[in-house]
Design a protein that fits this description.
- The protein is mainly α and 143 residues long.
- The chain has a domain of 93 residues: Winged helix-like DNA-binding domain superfamily/Winged helix DNA-binding domain (Arc Repressor Mutant, subunit A, Orthogonal Bundle).
- The chain is built from eight helices and two strands, in the order H-H-H-E-E-H-H-H-H-H.
- Helix 1 packs across helix 2, helix 1 crosses helix 8 and helix 2 packs across helix 3.
- The longest helix has 17 residues.
- The protein is elongated and about 55 Å long.
């Protein structure tokens, strides 16, 4: 349902939300190592998220990425929208071009409630709320 790029972007944003601050910025290389991604690929995702004002960054010896308090209040769906848009989340899981309630694919009615709930979850919960669950040990970024 999420592209690999969106998964990596969500992981990176949550990692930054948990471990970085305006006083303690994190470099792309550290994030890439932590979430096991090639640094050039991750850098491209982080640049996209910076352009979309989800991440903040600064250059120089103490530079890196962080989230402002306002960015932590953004819904997690904003990360996915910045990378893929929401069309991918609404696409047919079997890849059919015309899948809808009026013209359903064989699994449409089994999958649609899950997709709707997933979109709702991402739209109703902030980056910061997910980061807090990681900080409290309720959820994990690394296994």
């Amino acid at each position: 349902m999420l592209s690999s790029s969106s998964k990596y972007a969500v992981n990176a944003v949550l990692y930054i939300a948990v471990y970085a601050s305006e006083d303690k910025k994190i470099r792309a290389g550290e994030i890439a190592e932590a979430i096991k991604l090639p640094s050039p690929f991750l850098s491209k995702l982080l640049q996209t998220l910076s352009r979309e004002n989800i991440l903040s960054s600064s250059k120089g010896p103490k530079g890196g990425f962080y989230l402002t308090p306002e960015a932590k209040e953004l819904a997690l769906i904003e990360v996915v929208k910045s990378i893929d848009g929401v069309d991918r989340l609404e696409d047919c899981v079997l890849g059919l071009k015309k899948c809808s309630s009026e013209q359903p694919c064989p699994v449409h009615f089994a999958v649609q409630p899950f997709k709707n709930r997933f979109l709702q979850e991402l739209a109703e919960n902030s980056i910061g709320s997910y980061a807090e669950k990681v900080k409290k040990g309720e959820t994990y970024l690394f296994v």
